[in-house]
Amino acid sequence: MSINWFPGHMNSTRQAIKDRVKAGLDVVIELLDARLPGSSSNPLLAALTTGRPSLKVLNKQDLADAAQTAAWLDFYNAQPHTRAIPLDAGEKTPARALIKACRELAPLRGDIHKPLRVLICGIPNVGKSTLINTLVGKRAAKTGDEPGITKLEQKFVLENGFYLFDTPGMLWPRISIEQSGYNLAASGAIGRNAFDEEEVALELITTLKRRYPEQLQARYGLTELGAEDAVLEAIGLKRGAKVRGGAVQMHKAAEALLIDYRQGLLGRITLETPDEMAAWRREAAEDEARKAAERDAAQAAEKVKRNGRRKASSGEA
Ligand code: G4P
Questions:
Q1: What separation in Å is there between the alpha carbon of 9 and the centre of ligand 1?
Q2: d(CA 125, ligand 1 centre) in Å
Q3: In a domain, 1, yes or no
Q4: How far is the CA of 222 from the centre of ligand 1 (A)?
Q5: Residue 87 belongs to what domain range?
Q6: Measured from the CA of 132, which atom of ligand 1 is nearest?
Q7: pLDDT tens digits in sequence order for the chain, 317 residues long
Q8: Is 233 a member of any domain?
Q9: Residue of the CA atom closest to atom 33 of ligand 1
């Protein structure tokens, strides 16, 4: 699937993160979507903040499959210098758990003399503004610029000795894993004009048929699940996506399914498992390596051809 993604303020965001690392960074919070905890993780962030302890926050856990969330928490908690917690960004008490987890990741920092400096990042629509509002409440003060730090950065003092830094804009990598593109689009992380809703809806139906068939059937009163396009048509019929004459408008049906999914109306659904994600990453890496080898071979063949032509035209034997 092709996604017409826009890098946005990518360069200024990248620079803001580099500046923060240089100025001092103790913990990186990566806000993930609990419905797609692998695809919503940003490889560029890991590359820019290597060596810093990481807190993975699986947000929107209320929309995700609880058993899968537990599997993803185990997966991330098994990684070095990493902790993972589930969250509903709008809930006050669980949000405080995040502060505790950050303090545990950097136990030598966190007083007035050595403040704990925490950076928060996440893909669009993952709930970052909601979480910051929940955490900041009335107590925290937003403070001015620090020397050497881009004006774009915002600093929130959550407690004595606990600074939360936020960088606007987005650090949006090229999506090299096809299934991640579908899952991100289904979740609402990608602007609607950037992808084909029907294609994404059909892919979502494939995943739902495989993993949550009862929930799909229950939501739309389907007695059986046929081919993907037949299911989408049946959804369109139920959701009034018909034109005059009775034919179903498939793009309207797709839109209805995606809205229902995003609002949690199909129940708690997670689109990927840690094992699947690992397999997709491997396939994508193999694919990239194969393409690079093909490119190299084509370039080498072109060079041989050019040399041959040059020798022929200069009359060399
Ligand atoms: P962002 O800054 O990362 O772009 O995301 P933002 O906080 O704006 O949140 C995006 C949407 O996700 C919002 O819904 C927000 O309410 C919702 N959201 C955030 N955290 C959670 C969560 O833990 N669970 C659930 N179910 N939803 C969450 P919206 O429809 O865009 O806006 P609104 O309905 O809140 O006005």
A1: 21
A2: 6
A3: no
A4: 30
A5: 8-166
A6: 7
A7: 666 665 556 778 888 899 999 999 999 999 999 999 999 998 889 889 988 999 999 999 999 999 999 999 999 999 999 999 999 987 877 678 899 999 999 999 988 889 999 999 998 889 998 898 888 875 444 444 444 444 578 999 988 899 999 987 777 777 889 999 999 999 998 888 888 999 999 999 999 999 999 999 999 999 999 999 999 999 999 988 877 777 889 999 999 999 999 999 999 999 999 999 999 999 999 988 999 999 999 999 999 999 898 888 887 65
A8: yes
A9: 130
Q: Is there a domain that residue 120 lies in?
A: yes
Distance 223 CA to ligand 1 centre (A): 33
Of 36, 58, 125, 166, the residue with max ligand 1 atoms within 8 A of its CB, to mutate for a pocket test, comes to 125
Q: How far is the CA of 124 from the centre of ligand 1 (A)?
A: 10
Query: ∠ at Cα 9 (17, 284), nearest 5°?
Result: 80
Domain count, the chain: 2
161 and 43 share one domain? yes
Whether 213 and 71 share a structural domain: no
- Any residues with Cβ below 6 Å from ligand 1, and which? 59-60, 62-63, 88-90, 122, 124-130
Q: What are phi and psi of 120, to 5 degrees?
A: -115, 130
Does a structural domain hold residue 27? Answer: yes
CATH number of the domain where residue 70 is located:
3.40.50.300
pTM (predicted TM-score): 0.89
Q: Indicate whether 113 and 222 sit together in one domain.
A: no
Please state, in angstroms and rounded to a whole number, the distance separating the CA atoms of residues 162 and 27.
11
Q: Does the CA dihedral 283-285-289-292 come out positive or negative?
A: positive
Check whether residue 150 and residue 94 sit in a common domain.
yes
Residues 6+ apart with CB under 8 A from 84: 55, 56, 57, 58, 72, 73, 75, 76, 77
Q: Of ligand 1's atoms, which has the minimum distance to the CA of residue 91?
A: 23
Which tokens belong to 195? 């992808």
